[in-house]
Request: fold
Amino acid sequence: MSSSVETGSTAVEANGQVEKDIEALRAQVLGPVLTAQDESYDAERAGHQTARWHRPQILVGAVGPADVRAAVEFAGRHGLPVAVQGTGHALAAVAAEGGVLVNTSRMTGVRVNVAERTAWVAAGVSWDKVIHEAARGGLAPLSGSAPGVGVVSYTLGGGLGLLARRYGYAADHVRSIDVVTADGRLRTVTKSSDPDLFWALRGGRDNFGVVTGIEIDLMPVATLYGGGLFYDFASAPEVFDAYVRWSAGMPEEMTSSIAVISFPDAPALPPMLRGRHVVHVRIAYAADDLGPGKELVAPLRALDPFNDTVRELPFAEGGSIHNDPAAPGTFETGTAMLGELDPDALRTLLAHVGPHAPVPHVIELRHLGGRLARPADVPNAVGNRDACYLLHVVSRRERADMADIGPAHDRLFEALAPWSTGGRALTFLNGARDAEQVRSAYDPADYRRLAEIKAVHDPRNMFRLNHNIPPAGRS
Reply:
């Protein structure tokens, strides 16, 4: 066997031995094993994000842990990097060129234990399935705003969802992790069995192996007081100022965000939204008694929204609060953790969005604090817990030239630098462009510890086609 190195990833040159090894891998694996010459290759590597596509040399559609082990062992024998593609939005920020791509979307088991308030979830499951199964027991997972998002990548990247200020990050409520590490072993990792690796996986995601399933806590939440308040963009200065002052006084049971959305003039949209720039406040109040919810939201209702959907609703309908688009798309995102915001910060933000902006954006400020600000009961690597707000910006290539999107994002984040904590949120780093952006998702001491643990479990950096954390001693 011979090999060559191209742009940071290793590609095995085609020869007779490698072809024989690929055929041997096909005999081992229950799911498909594909190369670029196979007709179903493109369909297998397709994801929610169509701006970047993995283009692996070998694509393994795993149906269970044994398939994952075979794929990792193959990669190890041939000196290949390994990338993971899950379900939902789980395409990595860095598209894999060469190497082995493990697609875990066929791994779809869910087991809910109502008495223990837990669920075991396989790697290919999206939140909608867990939400449905948990609701039968009056329980809810710490899922995100979009029920179609994959559970594992979201959770192990942190996971900031509808119950976040009351319960914390989804990563704070993981009990065990089934993972295939670089040596091809399938391990069940817990706080007792392997505390360092358990700490690192919860926040470090696919830097340490291919996760095949996780056990998570479920929360005793059946109903929310939630929905959306919509305002015309002309009211944005008043609404943003009121929202920031309002959110600062909210109890931990209130999780909320405020967004500016540039809606296209599309027939599929309600007439009240077509071709319009709107301010959208998202409300998710989760308390044992929902009675105070109406009073808490009253100051925002006093600002005269043109549409108000806030009401008591089953947690299973929580996806309607943000109403994120479910269809795949070509988009770029950026993120920044912000501290306390003053009127100058809000004026600066609004100067870069709305009808006057050269690039149509969706921008969202998510209110943090509450339980998010405190360490997990079992510590993990999720960083930037001191931030007050998370800013997330999304621009779709269907509505703007790519040459304009990147500079527009840069201008926005540079303008807001005086209010930034310097951190970023890993699960929103869809378009991470350099190692420093990945580093900024962690506290400095935690990043050093992650690199040290990486050196123990993946010294060759097999798992590098991702938001990569190189092993200590390697750049």
Notes: The chain has a mean pLDDT of 90. The two ends are 27 Å apart (CA to CA). The longest strand covers residues 223-232. DSSP finds 14 helices and 19 strands in the chain.
